[in-house]
Amino acid sequence: MNQPPVVEWTEADQARSARWRSENGAPPPRRVVTADDRTKADDAYKLACEGTALLWRGDFHNARQLLTAMTRRIDRRPRKTPPADVTQAFHQHRAAQNQRARILGMLLVPLDAALAVPLHRAPDVREACARAYGPAEPAREEAAPEAAEGADPTASLVSLRELLGLIGANEWRRKGVEIPALGGDRIHPHYGVFSPARGEYVDLVAEAPLPSRELAFDIGTGTGVLASVLARRGVRRIVATDQDPRALACARENTQRLGVAGQVEVVEADLFPAGRAPLVVCNPPWVPAKPTSPVEHAVYDPGNRMLLGFLSGLGEHLTPDGEGWLILSDFAEHLGLRAHTALLDAIAAAGLAVLERLDITPRHPRARDTSDPLHVARAAEVTSLWRLGRADGDVADSRRDGEG
Asked: How far apart are CA 176 and CA 179, in angstroms?
């Protein structure tokens, strides 16, 4: 078994170490100094930019204020002029985001063995941490009370920025996301599972004509939202697949909450379950780029692995007159990361024909934000539901249909 990463530092002239927690896989910082309420924002920002992490030992609210002050200093830096080439602009934007995350991730807070933050005025984060990291370690029975008294409670370290993300994600899970296609009922996303906050693709699945109500496969189910929509539309049995344990648990919880668990079977699989179905639905990640955190796996798909895997395997999992529904944004095409002809070629190479393409434009605020460096691509984005069937005769017909 792999040992968890460890952070080492010196505090009060003593060598210290603690477990390092990072959901995005960031390595433990090599240099750590302690900081408290006396630490100035300019000094903290300078150290973070140089790669030195600051372990906070002061008031929790003051740590949040320091993080905000560091954020302002990043925002005040002169921005590079976005390149005219939209693909280069995308890579520059991603690089800037990663650098921003690295700097702001240098402000650390401690967690004790119970996943609580042992700082003054810290909120109760135990539930949020347990849902992201797993249950807290059991207390050590051999530790006598007198030995524990006055001992430092630090068991692990986490960036404050990540911890605040965990808190926010836990609130999303509690409150849920209202889904109009489910009559206003809510989907409750787990940490690390993509939230269906953008409802366009859900609306497409809610409105497309069903080829059958007997059986459907939902490939890469995530929160289970599409499987639930199909169940509410009267599909009698849906097999929903995913290979992420968090997604599997999330989908099972949501289908149970929505009262459709009797129709939806959630199974662990890489893409397809066994057998064939008259309807196979998939909403793969839209952008062929490397993800930098667990939740980004729902957006970024290196090499179009899931997209191409779905298309190449669809035919052998469809009944003779069945349909595959591919729900895909063309955002990557506007970024120059995937050619439209490449998608059509992949459909044709899989022996599939385009029966119809249903389009919808985005409603999210970023599509109208002219200050966004990727505004041109976002404003042109269209999300489509491609109704695919087995090719009959000349596959060229499918290419013509797909170009509409």
From this structure: 9
Q: Is 329 helix (H, G, I), strand (E, B) or coil?
A: strand
Residues in Cβ contact with 271 at an 8 Å cutoff, skipping those fewer than 6 apart: 219, 220, 241, 306, 309, 310, 313
Give rounded-to-5 percent helix, strand, coil for the chain: 40, 20, 40
pLDDT in tens, 18-76: 999 998 888 999 999 999 999 999 999 999 999 999 999 999 999 999 999 999 999 99
The residue assigned the tokens 């059991």 is 138
Is the sign of the CA dihedral 180, 183, 188, 194 positive or negative? negative
Q: Which two tokens stand for residue 15?
A: 């060598």
Q: How far apart are CA 236 and CA 264, in angstroms?
A: 8
Q: Is there a contact between 240 and 221 (Cβ–Cβ < 8 Å)?
A: yes
Residue matched to tokens 């240098």: 106
Token couple for 259: 């009262």
Taking the alpha carbons at both ends of the chain, their separation in whole angstroms is 52
DSSP designation for 300: B
Dist. CA 294–CA 302, nearest whole Å: 14
Tens digit of each residue's pLDDT (9 = 90 or more) over 120-130? 999 999 999 99
Q: Model's pTM, two decimal places?
A: 0.88
CA 396 to chain centre: 36
Long-range contacts at 256-263 (CB < 8 A, ≥ 24 apart) = 257/188, 258/182, 258/185, 258/228, 258/231, 258/232, 260/227, 260/228, 260/231, 260/232, 263/231, 263/235, 263/236, 263/237, 263/238
